TrEMBL record:
The keyword Hydrolase does not apply. The keyword Plastid does not apply. This is GNAT family N-acetyltransferase. SUPFAM superfamilies: Acyl-CoA N-acyltransferases (Nat). Residues 10-197 form the N-acetyltransferase domain. Transmembrane segments: none annotated. Keywords: Transferase. GO terms for molecular function: acyltransferase activity, transferring groups other than amino-acyl groups. It holds the Pfam family Acetyltransf_1. It comes from the Bacteria. Signal peptide: none annotated. It comes from Mycetocola zhadangensis.
Length: 198
């Protein structure tokens, strides 16, 4: 368990499902995606909805080992989510321009990826996503990751960033956790890596 400023982070498998539901909510992109976008092809995504995506994440939580993400708590309140898995678990991810800039082989199971952050409205700007990222790094390394990648946005390079785009995280949050920028495929998006040698 990672803690920072009274924030505790646990694997989603250790949290009641109702807490995961509370984080994803009933409005906005998280409530319809449930971290399935990078796991579906275009045809599947066109017809996706909460009714299809929530059960898929629930099944992945039940069946995948290690689990596909982490839940953050502020006190007893579930407030955030971070998706972190081996990059090969996200088939759609590899087709993106940012990920294609990675020097790592596309089929390497020791390359992990952080693809999504969700922080509930009312709990933002409290360091929750940064704490989630620190815990994600610990989680990935404990389960055999050699490299952890992230694909954050850079607010300094963009006039406007929608709240929906922030699900990738921001560059400063990754830098604060020891990640190094290895590519800048577009001015507003970076490919960042944390590597372990032992």
């Amino acid at each position: 368990m990672e803690e920072g400023a009274n924030i505790a982070v646990i694997p989603v498998t250790d949290a009641p499902w109702r807490d995961t539901q509370a984080v994803f909510g009933t409005r906005g992109d998280p409530s319809s995606c449930w971290c399935q976008y990078f796991k579906m092809d275009n045809a599947e995504w066109k017809t996706a909805s909460r009714d299809t995506c929530e059960p898929l994440l629930k099944e992945q939580v039940r069946e995948l080992s290690p689990p596909p993400g982490l839940i953050a708590y502020l006190g007893d309140e579930p407030v955030g989510w971070c998706a972190v898995e081996p990059r090969i678990n996200y088939p759609r991810l590899g087709r993106g321009k940012v990920v294609q800039a990675s020097p790592e082989p596309v089929d390497d199971p020791t390359v992990w990826a952080v693809t999504c952050f969700v922080v509930r409205v009312g709990f933002r700007k409290k360091g929750i996503a940064t704490t989630l990222l620190a815990a994600a790094a610990e989680h990935a390394r404990a389960h055999g990751a050699r490299v952890l990648e992230g694909y954050p946005v850079d607010p300094a390079q963009r006039e406007k960033i929608s709240s929906a785009e922030l699900y990738y995280g921001i560059v400063s949050q990754f830098t604060a956790n020891g990640f190094r920028e290895v590519a800048r495929p577009t001015p507003g998006r970076a490919l960042m890596q944390l590597r372990w040698t032992d």
